[in-house]
Amino acid sequence: MLLTLLAIAGFVWSNQHHPFFWDTVQLGSKHAHFFYENDLQWSPLPAAIDSGHPPVFGWLLAACWTLFGKTLPVSHWMMFPFLAGIAMLLWYIGKRLGSLEWAPWLLPLVLLDPVLAGQSALVSPDVVLAFGFLLSVSGLMYGKRWWVMLGILGLCSISMRGMMTAGAVFVFGICLAWSSVRRDARFATIRYFFQSTLPFLPGFLFAAWFLWWHQKNTGWTGFHPDSPWATAFKPVGLAGMLRNAAIVGWRWTDLGRFAEWFLLFILLFQKRKFWLSKLFWLWAILVVFLTPSALLHQNLSAHRYFLPAFMALHLIVFQVVANSDLDNLRRKLLYTALIVCLASGNLWIYPRGISMDWDATLAHLPYHRLRAETVDFLEREKIDFQTVGSAFPNLNTGENLMLDGDDRQFAELDFSTNTYILSSNVFNDIDVEEYKQLETDWQLVRRQEMAGVWMELYRRK
């Protein structure tokens, strides 16, 4: 366990100077800037950065800046307690699901999953969500009520998705409580069920208070028509639902996760009682809670939205292998193959034209260096940032990305007005036709590539 904690500390140290990236620019940096600049006063966020989530993570980050200084290392090291907590909970759960001998295998199986690994390299509220999920689930399964209370409170205070996950864990807790009572006594145990739900009360009360407070102060809950994210919540018809179902299916097999499904189907047919495992209840309930929004709306199917369900799947796979009839050598070989396959997902980069969730993989890491070197080039050439068109996630000030006081930012992509265009395969908003136009009508000034991530600077001919 000590080696794992040292490895996590080394991981944080290696990433401590990386800028805010992807959605963490808004959910981390911008939220924290608001509270930091307002002396940590709790108040509604400006509409431009308010996506309806409880801004507790941003407030916590601002508090750390106030105490230790507004720097990238402080921001990244704030994540260490949560990452260490995840590792220790996995060790604890691994001993319970398997044994002390097999517990060490659960840690890399979960921690090297590209979605969790990618988020772990960032200053991300989803790391807190993952910790709260594991804390509440392990508390339910092993009789730790304080763990349940703290985990659910963490889930409900971190995001709307955290609230949905808390709801799923609540249903799972009811199922556990129901299954532990004799059938002939079930309807005489109302008091028992009431007591089993008490640890959920603080988190659910906070969620109810926040939704009421936010509605009262902003006039909306979740999203509103003028929200910058309103298009993501746009309802879809039958064709859109079918398309979204295909995307969700892709998420469940993407980045090496197909290997887990392949192994499960083989082993579960040999030992079918695992289909009735309590962890299968948990996974199924999470799928029911987290999937509908992805099916019914235009763009709510990012990998990280399914992180709790992915983690439940890892627990199932671990339990099935650890308790299988295979000999020790074969079990170790299976774990090794699964870990290698999942870890390899951090190297997967799809060809141009296929969008990726770059925050759900460590493959994004070279982008930070490429961007920094490009900025140095633009400064040497005295090229005004406002003459350079770019795309998400490269449309933020240096202050929001790197906390360096730099208020410059690139212009939005516009082929009719930009003098230069800065593109990268990390930018999903530049489509294949636009790349063809760049290659045909614009002059390539500079191109850099590192570990499959590339960045190109074009100038109008």
Kindly describe this structure.
The protein is mainly alpha-helical and 461 residues long. The protein has helices at 2-15, 24-37, 56-68, 72-77, 80-97, 103-111, 114-120, 125-141, 145-158, 160-179, 190-197, 201-218, 238-253, 258-270, 278-290, 292-296, 307-322, 328-344, 365-380, 398-402, 432-441; strands spanning 388-390, 411-412, 420-424, 442-450, 453-460. Strands 2-1-3-5-4 form a five-stranded mixed beta sheet. Strand 1 (388-390), helix 20 (398-402) and strand 2 form a beta-alpha-beta unit. The termini are far apart. The model has no long low-confidence stretch (mean pLDDT 91).
Short description:
The chain is mainly alpha-helical. The chain has helices at residues 2-15, 24-37, 56-68, 72-77, 80-97, 103-111, 114-120, 125-141, 145-158, 160-179, 190-197, 201-218, 238-253, 258-270, 278-290, 292-296, 307-322, 328-344, 365-380, 398-402, 432-441, and strands at 388-390, 411-412, 420-424, 442-450, 453-460. The protein has two domains: 2-347, no CATH class; 358-460, no CATH class.
Unreliable runs, pLDDT <50, ≥5 residues?
Answer: none
Helix content: 55-70%
Shape: globular
Q: Please tally the β strands and state the result.
A: 5
Mean pLDDT: 91
H/E order of the elements? Answer: HHHHHHHHHHHHHHHHHHHEHEEHEE
What strand line-up does the widest sheet have? 2-1-3-5-4
